[in-house]
Specification:
Blueprint lengths: L1 H13 L2 E4 L1 H13 L13 E5 L26 H8 L3 E6 L33 H8 L5 E6 L5 H7 L2 E4 L19 E6 L2 H11 L29 E5 L9 H16 L3 E5 L7 H16 L17 H12 L2 H14 L5 H21 L5 E5 L15 H5 L6 H6 L3 E9 L2 E9 L4 H11 L1
Parallel strand pairs: 2-3, 2-4, 7-8, 7-9
Antiparallel strand pairs: 1-3, 4-6, 5-6, 5-10, 9-11, 10-11
Helix pairs in contact: 4-5, 6-14, 8-10, 8-11
Bound molecules: glutamine (GLN).
The site of glutamine has 13 residues, from loops.
Subunit structure: Heterotrimer of A, B and C subunits.
Family: Belongs to the amidase family. GatA subfamily.
Keywords: ATP-binding, Ligase, Nucleotide-binding, Protein biosynthesis
């Protein structure tokens, strides 16, 4: 009830929620109260959370912030929702994001622009901007975001909270409405790394309904938070301190790395030479996969349908009117990159470069246990500043995209301020070694 009141009080300015499920939340909270004290409790029992609106919630509107899924209510729950429900968590509602998770500012939502709680005239980052803003504004104790190229980590950094993109395959994607299937991961966002660990515990694990889900044991993440960093080798890649990075961001990041050293870690320079190819590689692969994934939204199988003379008119009008400009741009880029005659030059090439980027990380992880880097070259930028310049928007993800291409995990921890706005330290780990990332992030915090 306190959080619902907080939502009511702050939503007029923050605008993080697309749907508030107040009645459901109260019912779930009552049910959790009724079973309080049982020995088998999950730490999430009775904990109020909110969910990015690209994750299917049975009977609850799931829009992907798009007009093409206006009023669409899925007939089933995503696996992560089943797991949260089984743990006794409470759902407060569904959170705003960029349309189909395409963007870095939450401004491509068809419904509303979310404000950054630290400065409402600035963006919360994206695409999981609603998920980051809701935590930062005290509207939910934790949220789920999704990360295809940085969408958990960049908004976590810009809103001064913690967020984790797990290893590809660690968390089931079943019921996550797909953007780039080979890159997408669901992950937890919360104030502290300790809370992120509690949430990951519930989310992680094999799911036979997701063919890319890994069948590996899930360690006890909270037990890994020992506070001890002695002997940990932390790599610092020069390539991530990109040209044009705001000096205040670089300074806060380097100071945070010094703190890791003071805590007993060994700081080692490493090189990830293919970093500069990550952005063009990502912007071939992600739109290519998106163009295929979004082909299903034709007004026949899902959501609303625009009237037209023939079936083809209907499909054309529905897709033409109900997908926003950024989504249409990605579908066109992706269709082009996959078309006969261009496939070898673009898509195949991008896949080859992706392998080289992955090898950069494999090589670095023979020398170090984790990598520490900036998350975003800038702090939260003013609403509207980059909306007319897609390339400037794409550049916000230079430090986060390579991690998705390599499939490795990435954790963001708040590490101070630049010009009174939050900065986030990004920690990158070996595949399926979220435990070490969480230990480092928690010790820092
Ligand atoms: N900003 C990147 C994009 O627009 C990443 C988005 C994401 O991670 N979902 O594709």
């Amino acid at each position: 009830e306190a959080l619902l009141a907080r939502i009511e009080q702050t939503e007029p300015s923050v605008k993080a929620f697309l749907t508030v499920t107040a009645e459901l939340a109260i019912a779930q909270a009552r049910a959790a109260d009724a079973t309080r004290g049982a020995a088998t409790h999950s730490p999430l029992h009775g904990i109020p959370l909110a969910i990015k609106d690209v994750i299917a919630t049975e009977g609850v509107r799931t829009t992907c912030s798009s007009r093409i899924l206006e009023n669409f209510a899925p007939p089933y729950n995503a696996t992560v929702m089943e797991r949260l429900n089984a743990a006794g968590a409470v759902m407060l509602g569904k959170l705003n994001c960029d349309e189909f998770a395409m963007g870095s500012s939450t401004e491509s939502s068809a419904y509303q622009t979310t404000g950054n709680p630290w400065d409402l005239a600035r963006v919360p980052g994206g695409s999981s901007g609603g998920s980051a803003a809701a935590v930062a504004a005290g509207q939910a104790l934790g949220t789920l975001g999704t990360d295809t190229g940085g969408s958990i980590r960049q908004p976590a950094a810009l809103c001064g909270i913690s967020g984790l993109k797990p290893t590809y395959g660690r968390v089931s994607r079943y019921g996550l409405i797909a953007y780039g299937s080979s890159l997408d991961q669901i992950g937890p966002m919360a104030w502290t790394v300790a809370d992120v660990a509690l949430m990951l515990q519930v989310l992680a694990g094999h799911d036979p309904r997701d063919g890319t889900s890994a069948n590996l044991p899930v360690p006890d993440y909270s037990a890994a938070l020992t506070g001890d960093l002695r002997g940990l080798r932390v790599g610092v890649p020069s390539e991530y301190f990109v040209e044009g990075m705001e000096p205040g961001v670089e300074q806060a990041t380097r100071t945070a790395i010094e703190v890791l050293r003071d805590l007993g870690a060994e700081i080692v320079p490493v090189s990830l030479p293919y970093t500069k190819y990550a952005l063009p590689t990502y912007y071939i692969i992600a739109p290519a996969e998106a163009s295929a994934n979004l082909a299903r939204f034709d007004g026949v199988r899902y959501g609303p349908r625009e009237p037209g003379e023939s079936m083809w008119d209907q499909i054309e009008l529905t897709r033409g009117h109900r997908f926003g400009a950024e989504v249409r741009r990605r579908i066109m880029l992706g269709t082009y990159a996959l078309s006969a005659g261009y496939y070898d030059a673009y898509y195949k090439r991008a896949q080859q470069v992706r392998t080289l980027i992955k090898r950069d990380f494999e090589q670095a992880f023979t020398q170090v246990d984790i990598i520490a880097a900036p998350t975003s070259p800038s702090v939260a930028f003013p609403i509207g500043q980059k909306t007319d310049d897609p390339l400037a928007m794409y550049l916000s993800d230079v430090c986060t995209l390579p991690i998705n291409l390599a499939g490795v995990p990435g954790l963001v921890v708040p590490c101070g301020f630049s010009e009174n706005l939050p900065v986030g330290l990004q920690l990158i780990g070996r595949p399926f070694d979220e435990a070490t990332l969480l230990r480092a992030g928690d010790a820092y915090q």
